[in-house]
């Protein structure tokens, strides 16, 4: 796939995926179109060589895989790629409604390590999952996405905060509740009723009572190219839906004769410890079902490899001193191998060498990132997955700026080039 076509499809995916629930919904549709069959975890499976399958857990995590024809799992192993579906954001509280100066606001929690200042003065919408009792008494769930701007967090005027440009700490409890409406007379400020009316407008007409929800605010601005020569693109949730899309496209297009797998977990931004997170049992349980015999499974894992794909910090032109001078990845100069002596990343010389060899075959350059020795290092699902199932792993990612902002920036060449390398990785005979 050519760069422009790849990026346009990426933009469509990002715009349609304001929450992990919507991201998995979109991935499910694209995988089904490519011939993948959905399996239910609670059912007995009939998995055959040559088949393409996927499972979904919590509607926010997904694993898709291809069973090779004439390939023995124990000796061939599985080529695995991992990413995560969640991004830092503002999550609505269970009882969020407050009224201040005649205005309706919703209380929010900060999900993950979000940069808070960029959330001010943005056109915000609301999306997520709603659980309800249907008219016939059954329990149902439905995705909701208002799509249009329905809220804003207005900044305080500089006239009322003269020191704002000299450093500002944001209080998420008192300063971050989004403003949703101005109330008049007997107007009610009831989120559940607002949700019910929105779902009714979208032809969900069997709602008796809304019981619960998981809702997130997001910026309605669409992804877009940036730069005089469209060198960059900007979007919300590049960390890490960009990696989910790259992995999905590589899996669909690889046409591999090998056993291949993509796992996209929820909850990475808050530690991965959940039933659907990388520190949970989802991937391990799948591998146990594919290879029930422990001897076969252990040999399979020993012959497998995981590529953990999560965006990397590009060197910032205005803050170059925040990087080690020999390890400052640049946008549009290739994906980044992420390395850390304290195992915050799972890369080692063996996995890095293999991945470099694959990239050279595609004539794609790679870069290296090591955090400054006087700064703390983040982490990914890579070390967690390696520890949970014992598979050799490498951490890589597209370099980006403004990580964890409401709008992030990446190079327009890097995503499609990494997809090419992952497609070749999926076709590797030996790892």
Radius of gyration: 22 Å
Structural class: alpha/beta
Quickly name the level 1 CATH class of the largest domain.
Alpha Beta
| CATH homologous superfamily placement of the largest domain | Zn peptidases
Share of residues in strands: 25-35%
Mean pLDDT: 96
Strand tally is 20
Number of domains: 2
| CATH topology value of the largest domain | Aminopeptidase
The CATH architecture of the largest domain can be given as 3-Layer(aba) Sandwich
Residue share in helix: 25-40%
GO molecular function: aminopeptidase activity; metallopeptidase activity; zinc ion binding
Protein name: M18 family aminopeptidase
Keywords: Aminopeptidase, Hydrolase, Metal-binding, Metalloprotease, Protease, Zinc
Cofactor: Zn(2+)
Give a description of the structure.
26% of the residues lie in helices and 27% in strands. Helix 8 links the parallel strand 16 and strand 17. The protein is α/β, with parallel strands linked by helices and 431 residues long. The two termini are 26 Å apart. Helix 5 (238-254) packs across helix 10 (414-426) and helix 8 (349-361) packs across helix 10 (414-426). The mean pLDDT is 96. The chain is built from 10 helices and 20 strands. The chain is globular, with a radius of gyration of 22 Å. It folds into 2 domains: 3-87 and 236-426, Aminopeptidase, CATH 3.40.630.10; 89-219, Aminopeptidase i, Domain 2 (Roll). The strands form 3 sheets. It has a 9-stranded mixed β-sheet, with helices on both faces.
